[in-house]
Amino acid sequence: MEGQESLLLFIDFEFTMPESKANPKGFYPEIIEVGLVAVQNHKIVDQFSSYVKPNRFPKLSERCKTFLQISQDTIDQGITFKELLHVLANYNEHASVTVITWGNMDMKVLRHNCQMNSEPFPLHGECRDLSMEYKRFFGDRNQTGLWKAVEDYGKKGTGKHHRALDDALTTFNIFKLVEEDKRYLQKPEPSTIGDRIDLTEVLNKFAT
User: Fold this and answer.
1) Domains identified in the chain and CATH numbers
2) Per annotation, catalytic residue among 19, 93, 126, 162
3) Could you tell me the pTM of the whole model?
4) Domain Exonuclease spans what residues (predicted)?
């Protein structure tokens, strides 16, 4: 990827969960899966997917394993959080990077995980919450879930819900649909009087 071109970076994370709503002492969500889709000029130029080993609570709860349909062994073979930050920081080589997520939780958890591990936040540039843009655009009262938003368009999500790369790809697909609708609804440039009537015919009438 060339460093000077603008880049849209679609990101999705999956997180650890406590066994019950009563969080164990000191528990906080940690990133355990990452999906990245890098887009330039409306085309996917890079993808990255990996599981990530949590630091604070390395053993997954049964609830987490069931919900995400993953095993402890799978997570144990993932990259470290520090390696994840290195992957993310590589995208800063681009002159302009915009991070796009569905909801604000991904960036909140990433920032908190960085704080808890005494690491700097790895991403520069603007962060956009596409779910809020979708909500404002359609005038919804509540935020819509990612795959519900896809279904509202009469489409299907990519792959499997709650798999980070599939959700990142689905976010990119929703982004394309919303941007297309925005362009469609933009008012066309006002036409000139010459566009609306045949001036030659009018002038000929006055000439006779």
Assistant:
1) 7-207 (3.30.420.10)
2) 162
3) 0.83
4) 7-184
Known catalytic residue: 162? yes
CA distance 33 to 48: 11
d(CA 99, CA 4): 16
pLDDT for 196: 47
Catalytic annotation, pick one of 2, 5, 14, 161: 14
Is residue 179 annotated as a catalytic residue, yes or no? Answer: no
Question: Mean pLDDT across the stretch 130-142?
Answer: 86
% of residues, the chain, pLDDT over 70: 86
* pLDDT tier at 3, thresholds 50, 70, 90: very low
- Identify residue 181 by its one-letter amino acid code: D
Long-range pairs for 13-19: beta carbons < 8 A, 24 or more residues apart: 13/106, 13/109, 13/110, 13/164, 14/68, 14/162, 14/163, 14/164, 15/105, 15/109, 16/54, 16/57, 16/60, 16/61, 16/64, 17/61, 17/63, 17/64, 17/67, 18/61, 18/63, 19/61, 19/62, 19/63
Rounded to whole angstroms, the Cα distance separating 161 from 139 reads: 25
DSSP letter for 109, please. H
Q: How many CA atoms lie within 13 A of 158 on its CB side?
A: 14
